[in-house]
What we know:
Number of helices: 5
Order of helices and strands: EEHHEEHEHEH
Largest sheet: 6 strands, mixed
CATH topology: Leucine Aminopeptidase, subunit E, domain 1
Strand content: 15-25%
CATH architecture: 3-Layer(aba) Sandwich
Oligomer: single chain
Number of strands: 6
Shape: globular
CATH superfamily: Leucine Aminopeptidase, subunit E, domain 1
Number of domains: 1
Amino acid sequence: MIExxxxxxTQLDVxxxxxxxxxxxxxxxxxxxxxxxxxxxxxxxxCRRLRGCPTxxxxxxxxFRLKARWIVHTPGPVWRGGALGEPQxxxxxxxxxxxxxxxxxxxxxxFPCISTGVYGYPKQAAARIALRVMQEHAAAxxxxxxxxxxxxxxxxxxELSR
Length: 162
């Protein structure tokens, strides 16, 4: 089952939280900045050693000062109209995140709304991709959380997950 909540992903007690990162992995705005602040300076050092990550792929670090044991960092696509592979790249973000979590024997994972902030991905299209991939992995995880920062996103996810 997929749990849809409105809240702060950095406060969740799950095995893995997913970071909607940029390709540098060195922090940024939105959820990325919040995760870096909450996890502490050790996260920035760990991310420097990773030397970035291409859009649609993912990298793993410890959770450091978070309740989560692990952070999966995945740079989502910037929306440029949808004809440049954005849907496939976004789907890959979710699939690769699940794969890395499974490799660490994670039983619970929380995702933010990847690419829908400053990257401009249309919220409904992104939510449909996210929920489809989450549903495909539901049997392999005890808890999958769609952690939406805003009420509008949470309502959209709840509507689409019915």
